[in-house]
Amino acid sequence: MLSAVIATAEPSKVPFYIVGGVLVLWAVALAWIGLSRPAFPNGARGQLGVTVISLALVVAAIAMAIVTA
To answer: What pLDDT sits at residue 61?
Structure first.
């Protein structure tokens, strides 16, 4: 009985799993593109874009880890 009450009181970890999965897919895609195209990310603007997206995904994953802890 007590374990059922405790289980319902815990927040769902699904948001963390979703954001974490997206971060993993982003990392694999970056690795694949980077290995197949030596010039990737094609200049300073491309580097900035990749950095901003990566940073946003990492911050979102950290935030979801904190919120669902």
So the answer is: 97
The per-residue b/e assignment along 5-35, b for 16 or more CB within 10 angstroms, e otherwise, is eeeeeeeeeebbeebbeebeebeeeeeeeee
Q: How far apart are CA 40 and CA 25, in angstroms?
A: 17
Which H/E stretch holds residue 54?
Answer: helix 44-67
The model's pTM: 0.81
Closest CA to 42 of 52, 50, 53: 50
Does residue 56 contact residue 26 with C-beta atoms inside 8 Å?
no
List the one residue out of 48, 54, 59 whose CA is nearest residue 28: 54
Cα angle value 53/65/13 (rounded, 5°): 110
